[in-house]
Amino acid sequence: MKRICWSLSVWLGVVRNEEMRVQMFKRVQTQRTIKQRVDSRIKWPTTNAERLMAKWGEGDPRWIVEERPDATNVNNWHWTEKNACQWSKDKLNALLVGMVLENDVAKCEILKIESCEGEAVANNRKGKLIFFYEWDLTLSWKGHLSGAAKEIEGSINIPNLSEENTVAEIEINISLKEPSNEATIVKDFLYHQGRSKIRDQLETYIKDLKEEFSKGMILPKKDNENSSKPKLLSKESLKDVHNSNNGAKDDNSKSKIDTTTVVMDVVFQCSGEDFYNALTTPELVSAFTQQSVTFQAIKGGKFQLFDGNITGEFIELCPGKKIVQNWKTKQWPDWLYSTVTVTINQQEDHTKVRVSIVGVPKSDEAITRQNWERYYFTPIKRTFGYGMLL
């Protein structure tokens, strides 16, 4: 009997953990990052060209540093991001809740938003605004036939409010709490006449996200009136642009780039072997990056991630213990590689990981730390459930 009870408790524990992992996978599906939806996905913001900007009147006009009194994000060059999640929830609530749909047949009212899962973010890159949003909404409604007293209740599900779909492609599914002949008539009314009005409100949300929420993201330049006019370059300036002495690949530039070491300590709720496999198994790497990868996890094996924005070579592989690799971003000079050492230390109920990156340009220290957290650690935790307490 004790053995049966023990087996049952183990089985229930496995089922419970599996349910938690399934919930985590579903949540991840609504949290796609910028890298998934733009052609230049996961472009690490600070490039060598940006660091070697020319003075006024010299060089490629794309590199010219705009004079700004506050010295903030000159020429709107760098990637800036603004979280629109709470704003979106408030806006959708204002647009949808209390909405009345009525004709000669029936009258319905949207009572509240039962659930609102997803995210929204606005980005500014090189003076261009890019919006990402993905929402799964569930609304509750009540209604009645004209002249009837019986109230009918139901729900409305909108699973794909996303920038990937046009307003016409947004799905609006209507269901009833208790089916009946009267309820079916009200449901048909909502389906044929109510959905178009709901889409109108969703279109207003998208319009306000792009126009109202994004105000202030494009910073003013020195001279707004003349900023649209192209700047003419002299022949001497054009020669300077193509002069090899200005190229980032010049051997002389090697001594001009100061480097530093970035060290990060992270805790994962998994075994050391599981974490090691997540970084060295092509199928698992493809899962947390959500892209196809070029990968050969052997000593001397090459790898290419995030559409070629990250490349490198494995130097040392010690299963479950240690990974050493040469690693660089596409924006660094061809000759510049950092050395990444991933030390895996498994504890009793979790695994401590230390990532040391030697040879990072000082100007890229903060963004390198930020992007490892954003594109490595967080996706691994979310995809495989290694951030949960099991």
Give the oligomer, counting copies of the same chain as homo and different chains as hetero: single chain
Largest sheet, in brief, is:
7 strands, antiparallel
The structure class reads: alpha+beta
Extended strand count: 13
- Count of helical segments? 8
Low-confidence stretches: 30-35, 38-77, 224-252
| Portion of residues within helices | 25-40%
Average of pLDDT: 77
**Strand coverage percent:** 25-35%
* Physical arrangement of strands within the biggest beta sheet: 7-13-12-11-10-9-8
Key terms:
alpha+beta; 31% helix; single chain; elongated; 390 residues
Task: Provide structural commentary.
There is one protein chain. By secondary structure, this protein is of the alpha+beta class. Helix content is 31%, strand content 29%. It is built from eight helices and 13 strands. Strand 10 (310-318) and strand 11 form a beta hairpin. Helix 1 (2-29) crosses helix 8 (365-384), helix 3 (85-96) packs across helix 4 (181-213) and helix 6 crosses helix 7 (282-289). The protein starts with a helix and ends in a 6-residue tail after the last helix. Mean pLDDT is 77; it is low at 30-35, 38-77 and 224-252.
Brief summary of the model shown:
The protein has 8 helices and 13 strands. It has 390 residues and is α+β, with helices and mostly antiparallel strands.
Element layout with pairings:
Layout: H1 2-29, H2 48-51, E1 80-83, H3 85-96, E2 100-102, E3 106-125, E4 128-145, E5 152-162, E6 173-176, H4 181-213, H5 235-242, E7 259-268, H6 272-280, H7 282-289, E8 294-295, E9 302-305, E10 310-318, E11 322-329, E12 338-346, E13 351-361, H8 365-384
Antiparallel strand pairs: 1-3, 2-3, 3-4, 4-5, 5-6, 7-13, 8-9, 9-10, 10-11, 11-12, 12-13
Helix pairs in contact: 1-8, 3-4, 6-7
